[in-house]
């Protein structure tokens, strides 16, 4: 990678020009854009799913590729004039294949949810539609009668998925009732051990044997531990399931070779989905990696579940994936994991309770019930002190998914700014300062409320001052002066 500070300085004049032009058309947007940079620069961003993409990645999003329709795939488009989009998509897919060692990469999904929808339909097509068509001895879908279609629809509607439960750290799209995945499939979720809060592969295996899912999903949004994907594949094979791994959260750790061997999903899963904007540090978007067996069905993501690809975002994905193939990125990914360890140790040393007792990935889940707080109160009090986090359920959460009892913290964003283990230890200290000086307000019945709280006098100012010192020492986009 070239010197990022020099690149930022070069791009500064471009951004200044862009903002002054936008100002003439809609000043409120120029103002909000400047304000967003100021907010991001001045807060401790600990949201585990966020990051700071490089300026070359951000700049690549804002081009005329946004104006081009390109439904279809490389060399096979439903629109004319797609030769440059073909280049963009082919380069992004090539980087993705080579970075992750995947047989096939599909870079069109607009987001992580879209990537999972593509994966679901690809697996259904491969496992249900193709065998059904063979059974009906029809060569193409056009040969199907109305009765055949009815039978096929009924078969689609009877399929089963099994993923990690939301309160154990799974994602909405892994079969949650209020997501289409929980409505289009019969679903059963697996949780974590009540004592250790860790995945218990024997219990999971038993549950899979009993439920026999078509799709076994591994992956999480809030589980602070690594997963053994070789074991997950063994379980999938035993019950005849397709193994789908959603690595949206930890793709950067896979790309950066922190997760290797059994912890690398790509050699073990049939299909892997991801976002590109979390630990991978790219533009907002999604991606699907697959074995060549599933590739032809994944390739039909558009038009099956996607509209026209966002070519400008595919271009930015290509730039981000090129960045992720560098030695600097591997160093970054290792620092993300080391920093998470330092953050967890900082909490434990100060007496906080962490789900699973620690971390070995990029995130830490603090159980705030010991401070007498709900996750919602903790999240709000921290925000008052300039610390941006998000509340999250803990396993078997008595406060449910809205108020919750946890706060999820991740290291990818601040690591991109250059924060190291000592900084993260200090961050743990600041958070404990806020949590132990926040008091829940009492309801009319004398019970603690779930939403309101009072933050002790002077705490917010004290924490903001200490964070400002750290943030100043690790500037965001150094060289970018607007
Ligand atoms: N999958 C997982 C595991 C996630 O954590 C998320 C986002 O939080 C998604 C999918 C969805 O990603 P997006 O918000 O890009 O649709």
Question: How would you describe the overall organization of this protein?
Answer:
The chain is of the alpha/beta class and 482 residues long. It has 2 domains: 66-324, Aspartate Aminotransferase, domain 2, CATH 3.40.640.10; 327-473, Aspartate Aminotransferase, domain 1, CATH 3.90.1150.10. It is 47% helix and 14% strand. It is built from 19 helices and 17 strands. A 7-stranded mixed beta sheet has the order 4-10-9-8-7-5-6, sandwiched between helices. The longest helix has 24 residues, at 112-135. It is globular and about 75 Å long. It starts with a helix and ends in a 9-residue tail after the last helix. 48% of the residues are buried. The mean pLDDT is 95. The structure holds pyridoxal-5'-phosphate.
What do the pLDDT scores average to? 95
Do you know the CATH topology of the largest domain? Aspartate Aminotransferase, domain 2
User: How much helicity do the residues have?
Assistant: 40-55%
E-strand count: 17
How widely separated are the two ends?
Answer: 24 Å
Classification by helices and strands: alpha/beta
Please give the largest β-sheet.
7 strands, mixed
Compounds present? pyridoxal-5'-phosphate
């Amino acid at each position: 990678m070239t010197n990022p500070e020099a690149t930022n300085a070069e791009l500064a004049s471009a951004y200044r020009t862009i903002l002054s032009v936008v100002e003439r058309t809609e000043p409120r947007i120029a103002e909000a854009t400047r304000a967003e940079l100021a907010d991001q620069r001045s807060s401790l961003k600990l949201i585990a799913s966020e990051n700071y993409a490089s300026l070359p990645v951000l700049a690549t999003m804002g081009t005329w590729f946004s104006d081009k329709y390109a439904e279809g795939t490389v060399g096979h488009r439903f629109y004319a004039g797609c030769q440059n989009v073909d280049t963009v998509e082919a380069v992004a897919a090539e980087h993705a294949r080579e970075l992750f060692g995947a047989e096939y990469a599909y870079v069109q999904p607009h987001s992580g949810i879209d990537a999972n929808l593509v994966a679901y339909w690809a697996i259904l097509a491969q496992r249900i539609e193709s065998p059904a068509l063979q059974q009906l001895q029809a060569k193409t879908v056009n040969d199907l009668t109305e009765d055949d279609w009815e039978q096929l629809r009924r078969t689609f509607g009877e399929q089963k998925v099994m993923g990690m439960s939301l309160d154990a750290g799974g994602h909405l799209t892994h079969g949650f009732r209020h997501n289409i995945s929980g409505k289009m499939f019969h679903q059963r979720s697996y949780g974590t051990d009540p004592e250790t809060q860790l995945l218990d592969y024997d219990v999971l295996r038993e549950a899979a044997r009993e439920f026999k899912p078509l799709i076994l999903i591994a992956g999480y949004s809030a589980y602070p531990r690594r997963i053994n994907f070789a074991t997950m594949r063994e379980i999938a094979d035993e019950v005849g399931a397709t193994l789908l791994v959603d690595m949206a959260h930890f793709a950067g750790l896979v790309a950066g070779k922190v997760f290797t061997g059994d912890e690398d999903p790509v050699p073990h899963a049939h299909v892997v989905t991801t976002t590109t904007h979390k630990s991978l540090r790219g533009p907002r978007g999604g991606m699907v990696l697959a074995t060549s067996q599933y590739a032809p069905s994944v390739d039909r993501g558009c038009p099956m579940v996607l509209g026209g690809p966002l070519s400008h975002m595919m271009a930015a994905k290509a730039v981000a994936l090129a960045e992720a193939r560098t030695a600097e990125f591997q160093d970054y990914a290792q620092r993300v994991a080391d920093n998470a360890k330092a953050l967890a140790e900082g909490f434990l040393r100060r007496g906080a309770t962490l789900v699973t007792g620690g971390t070995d990935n990029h995130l830490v889940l603090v159980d705030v019930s010991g401070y007498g707080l709900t996750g919602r109160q903790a999240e709000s009090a921290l925000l008052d002190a300039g610390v941006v986090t998000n509340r999250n359920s803990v396993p078997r959460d008595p406060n449910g998914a809205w108020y919750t009892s946890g706060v999820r913290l991740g290291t990818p964003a601040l690591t991109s700014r250059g924060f190291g283990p000592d900084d993260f230890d200090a961050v743990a200290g600041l958070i404990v300062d806020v949590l132990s000086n926040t008091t829940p307000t009492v309801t009319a019945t004398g019970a603690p409320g779930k939403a309101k709280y009072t933050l002790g006098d002077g705490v917010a100012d004290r924490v903001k001052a200490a964070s400002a010192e750290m943030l100043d020492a690790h500037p965001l986009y150094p060289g970018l002066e607007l």
